[in-house]
Specification:
Length: 350
């Protein structure tokens, strides 16, 4: 049995991870700041019967106390999403990067050498593409004028030809294109540096689009599935940006929790350094398909494709789950149709 600290353990993903770790027979301690971007109300006093230590990761004394007697850390705490505007930038960096730095420093002082890090597919920027003329390629950031004109598909940076989306694997170049993405990549870099210097081990789980019961309601920090679900709950048509053909890999939160458990067990082997894994279903769907499936399951109004866009968004990110399957023994199990039907009727977080 391992004693595990779950940061952000009262949040959407963190509460599911806490349940999975407990079910596997481990002891759990929860630290959660109750940040308003993730919690519209104060977080619960307990999660799955485990008391929630309410503290900010930037509080060194609180983190040091939370680490007492701990064998491993599963680090879910983060400010997520694209946010409102650049006024959010200091808070993203403070919560995600300074908070992670404090956690790592205190882990080193406490002699805790095992970390499972919740990373994100946003570190890739655009996904992988193939050009008919130039082969595998990475497009540059999409031009505002193109987006405003409804030209959403990126072209080959060499010849301008349309590109075909391909599977992105963990060795793809990293190219964060939003503030949130930059902070998630910084978390990976900080954790890798900590591992090299301390001899610790890090499993970085690059979550793709996580959905499922307990998602937060519609806020600027919510995922697209929660935004659609909240609109339908209010009787409004989901508003789909661009042309709705953006491809994503939607992965159920119960599968994400299982991936964390697999990663926690993998770090027990003693390997040092950082190893990254896509946490994805391997079954891509468009954003428009997700909105339509939710609308049908709820019996609500059909989605409206708006043509609007956000500069921080990328066009297609579809993952290869092969490394996680081969090395962690993790394969996503929840089918999108079944997961969406469940989400359509599940309560959201207030």
């Amino acid at each position: 049995m391992t004693h595990v600290l779950v940061t952000g353990g009262a949040g959407f993903i963190g509460s599911h991870v806490t349940g999975a770790v407990l079910s596997a027979g481990h002891q759990v301690r929860i630290l959660d700041a109750g940040h308003p971007a993730a919690h519209a109300a104060a977080p619960p006093g307990t999660v799955h019967g485990v008391p929630v230590l309410r503290a900010d990761l930037r509080d060194r004394a609180a983190v040091a106390g939370a680490l007492h007697g701990v064998d491993a850390v599963v680090h879910q705490a983060a400010m997520v999403g694209l946010g409102v505007d650049l006024d959010d930038l200091p808070e993203y960096v403070g919560c995600n990067d300074l908070g992670t730095a404090v956690l790592l420093a205190e882990m080193a002082r406490a002699g805790v050498g095992r970390l499972v890090l919740a990373s994100s597919m946003v570190v890739y920027g655009e996904g992988a593409y193939t050009c008919p003329n130039d082969g595998p390629t990475r497009p540059s950031a999409r031009d505002v004028a193109d987006l405003a004109a409804g030209r959403f598909e990126p072209g080959c940076p060499t010849c301008g030809q349309p590109l075909t989306p391909a599977l992105v694997d963990e060795d793809a170049p990293l190219d964060p294109r939003s503030v949130y993405a930059a902070t998630k990549l910084a978390q990976e870099h900080l954790s890798a540096a900590w591992a090299r210097q301390s001899g610790g081990s890090v499993v970085a789980l690059r979550y793709h689009n996580v959905y499922g019961p307990g998602m937060p309601r519609d806020t600027p920090y919510s995922g697209v599935a929660a935004i659609f679900r909240s609109a339908l709950e209010a009787g409004r048509a989901p508003q789909v940006f661009e042309d709705g053909q953006q491809r994503r890999d939607f992965v159920h939160v119960s599968d994400v929790a299982r991936a964390n458990l697999a990663a926690l067990h993998a770090t027990a082997g003693g390997a040092t350094g950082l190893r990254a894994y896509n946490v994805a279903s391997g079954r891509p769907a468009t954003v428009g398909e997700m909105a339509t499936a939710l609308a049908v399951a709820v019996g609500g109004p059909e989605p409206v494709v708006t043509g609007e866009f956000r500069l921080g968004d990328v066009r297609h990110v579809v993952a290869s789950p092969a490394r996680a399957t081969a090395e962690l023994g993790f394969t996503a199990e929840v089918d999108l149709a079944a997961g969406v039907t469940e989400l359509a009727h599940a309560p959201l977080r207030g």
